[in-house]
Amino acid sequence: MIIRAILEWDEEVQAFSATCPALNYISSCGDTREEAIANLKEAIQLLLEPIPDRWI
Q: Any idea where the HicB-like antitoxin of toxin-antitoxin system domain is (predicted)?
């Protein structure tokens, strides 16, 4: 699955932010591009992870 992400440098906090508009604008950040992308991938995995029945 290919999901478009927007990667931006935030001068104020001196970090990269990665945002995915297709998934309710979920976002993450990191000190490097690679770290921001890896953190966004993890956030997307957590978002798409099913909720166990015992918690519903």
A: 6-50
